[in-house]
Every structure is written in structure tokens, then in C-alpha cells.
Amino acid sequence: MTLRHVIGLDHVVMAVRDLDAAAAGWRALGFTISPRGTHSAHMGSGNYTIMFGEDYLELLGVLVPTPHNAPMRAFLDGREGLERAAFTTDDAAAGVAELQARGIAATGPIAFGRPVTLPGGGEAEARFNVFQWPLDARPGGLRIFACEHLTRENVWIPELQSHANAVSRIIRVEVLATAPAGAAASMAQLLDRTAAADPDGAQRVPTGSGRADLVFLDRTTLAARHPGQSLDGLPEEGAAVLVLGTADPAATAAALGLMPDAPLFVPATRANGVALRFLPA
């Protein structure tokens, strides 16, 4: 039976060492960046968000070391990059119970919030409940958790959803794995989904509700998917390429400073450890 309380990809987390510098770099790629947020003290982190239609990208940095951010600090000891994928949950407590009933040692929920500066002036609060799959459950090196949005109106703010590069959604996350079939099978089991092979042999795991897919593949297959593009700065294992949907490829090319007929691709060296590929939405 499909998980009732896990509803597709919600957002991806980019772990970065210099939060403000990362925000400036992504702004230069044509993204609208939210004002900086500071999470509840026990989280010890701060963020900027890049909001799309139903999903988003989060730039996350450590402000104060805490037990909660220890796994991210360990990740940042090695590199920056797309460290986690979050799934929408409609009830974090029920989601934990649902996974535990299936023998998966999920933990949570954890409640936290952050202040939000509103575009028209004033301040609100964004509040969340999250739960986590076990820390050692990291198929392809990708950690996963689920997020219940208690104040969606303070996160999906219309003024933040319009981008000069015309990006409107996340299409898929391509994850390098030494054994793609095994990693996909593990992820599918954690999400109660079914993995299937793409024509090039990559293994695709749908996350549900029309949201982005997770695709596991080896380096040779990744290079064949993005011919002629630099793969410098990508990990041996882990999230490698974030494929984004654009409503206007010409606007995307202009925002990226590319010729109109050039492949819409940004190497990982320009995007904090993850490459970006832009496709028509």
C-alpha cells in the first residue's frame, strides 16, 4: 500500500558553507531569492529559498553548531552540494507512525519556524513539522526527510515565484551511484514506490503527485545525458544534476548569459556543487 502521508518531492536542500555568497551566486543565475531566514535555535541554521510552483530549492547554512545540524556539518566537511531531498507530508506525526509500522526507524516530528519578511512590509512566521528517515538510509548518498507546512502562505509568496530565468518547477534530480539499480531499489522501498529503468539504463523513482523524479545512474550514463558539458565538481556518489523546468528557454539563456541555441546547462562549479540543466516545462 502506498504511503498515505508522503506526497511527492517538496524541496531540495543545498548545503553551503557561505550562505550569503551562495545566495548572490544563485541570484546571478536569474533566480529570485527570498530574504534570509533564521531557523529556531535548536536547528542552528539559516536559509534562503528559491520558490517555484509546487516545489522549491533551499540554500541552507550552519549558523550555530547543534546536534540537529551535525549530519549537515559532516557533509560540509567534505563538500557543498545537494545534500537532502524533502517530501511533502500532510501530517508529520502520522507519517512517522506509518513508517515505523513498516519497520522503518523514522524519527520526529520536530517543530520549528523562521521569521519571514513580507514583500509589502511587515513580518510573518513560517512554521513546519518535519520527520526523518534513518540517517543511514541514504541511497546514492542522498539523505531524505519529510516536511509538513503549517503556514504555506508564508513560504509560497507570489512575488518570490517569478524568476528572470523563467524556471517554474523541478523536473528531476539525477543522482550518481556506484550501483544505480540497488540505490533506486532502496529509495523505492523507503518511499513505497516502484523503480523503473529509463531507456538509457538509468533507474527512475517517481516521488508522486506529479512532482519531480529521483533518477539514479552511473557517471558514464550521466555524461551521455549531458554531452559536451563539464562534470567537474560533481561527487563520486550523490546528487549531481538538478533538472529544472523553464517556461521560456530564451529567457533562461539570456539570464544565464548563453547564446540562444546553446545547451541550457550550468556546471557544478557555478552552483555550489550541483550542475543545473534547464528543459522546457
What does this structure look like?
The structure is a single chain. With 281 residues, the chain is α+β, with helices and mostly antiparallel strands. It has six helices and 15 strands. The strands form two sheets. Strands 2-3-4-1-5-8-7-6 form an eight-stranded mixed beta sheet. A seven-stranded mixed beta sheet has the order 10-11-12-9-13-15-14. The chain is globular. It starts with 8 loop residues before the first strand and ends with a strand. The mean pLDDT is 96.
Helix content: 10-25%
The number of helices is 6
List the quaternary state of the chains. Answer: single chain
State the strand order across the main sheet: 2-3-4-1-5-8-7-6
What is the radius of gyration computed over CA atoms, rounded to a whole number of angstroms? 18 Å
Strand content: 25-35%
Q: How many individual β-strands?
A: 15
Distance between the termini: 31 Å
Structural class: alpha+beta
Q: Which H/E pattern describes the elements?
A: EHEEEHEHEEEEHEEEHEHEE
Overall 3D geometry? globular
Let me know the average pLDDT: 96
- Unreliable residue runs: none
Largest sheet descriptor: 8 strands, mixed
What is the secondary structure topology, with strand pairs?
Elements: E1 9-15, H1 19-27, E2 37-38, E3 45-51, E4 56-62, H2 70-78, E5 81-88, H3 92-101, E6 107-117, E7 123-132, E8 143-149, E9 167-176, H4 180-191, E10 196-197, E11 203-206, E12 213-217, H5 219-225, E13 238-246, H6 249-256, E14 265-266, E15 275-280
Features:
281 residues, 6 helices, alpha+beta, single chain, 20% helix
